[in-house]
Sequence to fold (80 residues):
Amino acid sequence: MPIILIKNQTNKMKKVFALLTAFVFVGLVACGPSAEDAKKMEEAMQAAADSAANALLQQASDAATPVDTAAAPADTAHAH
Fold:
């Protein structure tokens, strides 16, 4: 008789666990970001990407310009 009682409790626990899992899943989906929040996040990510791209372009532009224009060429340094 005790084996049947344990088996019934196990089946009830499986059902309770399945229902609890379903409620948690539905709750997570329902509590997701609203359309307005999603748009704000997308705009913030785009602004960050634009800022990073501008920084890289500025760095590339700075690297393309001569750094030390006052240095004399090596062959004219000893000519007098």
User: Anything to note?
Assistant: The CA atoms of residues 74 and 80 lie 13 Å apart.
